[in-house]
UniProtKB/TrEMBL annotation:
Keyword annotations of the record: ATP-binding, Nucleotide-binding, Transport
Domain of life: Bacteria
Gene Ontology molecular function terms on file: ATP binding; ATP hydrolysis activity; transmembrane transporter activity
The species this protein was found in: Nonomuraea pusilla
Protein name in UniProt: Putative ABC transport system ATP-binding protein
Amino acid sequence: MTLKLADVVLTYPDGDRTLTALDHADLAVAPGEFAAVVGPSGSGKSSLLAVAATLITPDAGAVTVAGRDVSGASAAERTRIRRDHVGIVFQQANLLASLTTLDQLLVMADLAGRPPRAAAGRARELLAAVGLEGKEHKRPHQLSGGERQRVNIARALMNSPEVLLVDEPTSALDHTRGEAVVALLAGLTREKGLATVMVTHDLAALALVDTVHTMADGVLTHP
Ligand SMILES: Nc1ncnc2c1ncn2[C@@H]1O[C@H](COP(=O)(O)OP(=O)(O)OP(=O)(O)O)[C@@H](O)[C@H]1O
């Protein structure tokens, strides 16, 4: 399994009580598997992604990312694991307004200390793979919402992650563009052997995933 959460418990302080956001959650995603997590607002879906992304350390349980046990890892080790093995796609593209499409991707390689020449080749390849050939020199305001989300996906793949975590990728898009973005994620997951987890409210998106996990009050149930 490329991504594995075992018996994960996560609580947040809530006044003089604690709120259980993840209640003994288990999740296993294999290479090339496209998994969806659905559930009502506040049920713990974003918390699950944050734990899988090593952004939050749970109170208990084990988290394995790309074969690395991150449970006991230091903050610096977690940052390195996240940078080298995890791609994260948020709801809003969060692109840097002044940068071209190509530079949005090159920044990622630069942060990871990769040589610029190889990075430029990879960035162009990824932009072609997400259907953005010819848009390399456009800035975010010159792109449509769907195109910005494609840049976001290409950027998340820049450092060749094994795990791709995607939070509500279609929420800012109309139905047709949303469907195209999910189809793109499904294709990339298979082609690149990614372990992909997508949180979604979009029932149409579920037609293209392999597994649907349901979250309710912090409890994750499996197909
Ligand atoms: N930093 C935090 N501090 C305290 N409580 C939090 C924090 N983040 C989330 N929560 C609470 O934890 C629970 C799970 O939140 P989470 O954001 O994971 O749910 P979600 O399923 O992603 O919701 P949505 O679909 O609305 O984004 C909620 O009750 C939320 O209010």
